[in-house]
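hey so u asked for the seq, here:
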Amino acid sequence: MRGIFLLGLFSAAACMPLTSALASSPDAWQALHSKTADACLRKSALKKPKIVEGPVLFSGAVLYRIKGTWSQPHMKGKTGKVYCLHPYPDGAAEIVDAP
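ran it, structure tokens below
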């Protein structure tokens, strides 16, 4: 009985249409990293922002850690760090303060 079940399962799987896996080229990954990094640097609101960690890839998002100086006058040029999570391929970057 178990053999018949497995035979049916394999037969059903064999009848399913095959889809090819699409792999991204190194150039496509570089373009994604450049696009998301630029968006995160702009959104950080830091002066002279610089990526210090990343990209860290998640399924559907890229994470960066950014360092720079706070642009607000009351911060008096102190160093600041933020995290930026950018959904890809499209989406808006989100910024949170980093410890």
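Residues 45-99 form one domain. The two ends are 60 Å apart (CA to CA).
lmk if thats what u needed
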